[in-house]
Each structure stands twice: as C-alpha cells, then as structure tokens.
C-alpha cells in the first residue's frame, strides 16, 4: 500500500531540452532552402521555355519574313531626250523606264544608285538612279536618264555596221542600288539590290526586242 507521502507527491516538471530550439531552427532553414531551390528551378524552367519559344519564333521569322527575296526588273521603254553635238563623237541622252516588282513583305526604300551600259564589252553609258521607294509586295516604276557615249560604239566599226544592218544592238546593263527594308515596323535591314540585264534594242526605232535580267538582293 502506498504511503500518504507518495500519494500526495506532485509530478516533477521536466526541464525543456536545450537542443530542441536549435533543431527546429535548423529544420526551418532546410525547409526554406528547399523552397528557394524549388522556386529557382521553376523560374529557370520558365525562362528556358520562354527562350525556346522566342528562338522558334525568330527562326520562323527569319525563314519567312526576314528572308529577302530577289526583286524583278523589266525595261519598259527607251526614248531619246537629248543630244550633245560634237564633230567627232556626239553623245546623247536616253530616258529609260524600268518596272520593278518587290516580292518582300516589307517596303524597300533605296538611296541613289548607279547603272552602267556596255556594248559588246565596251563601256558606252552611265546613269544615276534617284532615291525612291517600292511598296511591300508591290510594283514601282523607275525612270532614269542615261548618257550614252558614242565613242564606245565605234571601237569595232565593222561589228557596229553589221549590227546596224541587222537592225538590232545587243547591250548589257547592270545596276547597284543600296537601300533599307523595315520589317514589322521595328527591324531595319540594309539591303543592296543588283540587276544584270542583257537587252536587244531595235535600230533605229529604239524598241525593246528582247531582254533577260538576273536580279538579286543581298543583306
């Protein structure tokens, strides 16, 4: 039988462990670190996904919108508009009308360009192309005055006489026109348009009998 002293004794309170608080703080720190790492991983994955999506979008734009397509040119007419009299080699001025088609989804604003003319390898003319603009996926007409140097035609008189008797003059023309295209109203790309044409002009009517042009553009 228990003694009265034992029955009336109160339980002795247990002193709290000195290591409990540090253990809880260490656990909280580990939990915070895990949460921080999880947030960093999620942010990294989201950023990677956005970068991949942006890369695919830029690739599609480069293959479609940013891909510069070659323009096409066609000489519509030639007309004599001036003559510089000379006792030896009179020079004259031709007004050339050229049609240009721009197949790109961006307008082409071009600066001053140059055009040269050759007759059977001899340089016979020059022209300056004035600045202008060709609309996106549209057409434009360019007029330029070309100074023709008759001295170049007379370097091979026998061949010139044969061409005149045949009623046609074979000519070669090339042009270099620098410009800029603006894509989506934001991206500005510098472009140089080149054109190399072989033209057969009737004599003396100056009608275009035939032409073969190779046009290309470079960024």
From TrEMBL:
Compartment(s) where it occurs, according to its Swiss-Prot or TrEMBL record: Membrane
Keyword annotations of the record: Membrane, Transmembrane, Transmembrane helix
Keyword Acetylation on entry: no
GO BP field: defense response to other organism
Any coiled-coil regions, as ranges: none
Gene Ontology cellular component annotations, sorted alphabetically: membrane
Membrane among keywords: yes
Domain Late embryogenesis abundant protein LEA-2 subgroup: 97-187
Recorded topology in the membrane: Single-pass membrane protein
Entry's transmembrane regions: 39-66
SUPFAM superfamilies: LEA14-like
Name of the protein in its database record: Late embryogenesis abundant protein LEA-2 subgroup domain-containing protein
Organism for this UniProt entry: Triticum aestivum (Wheat)
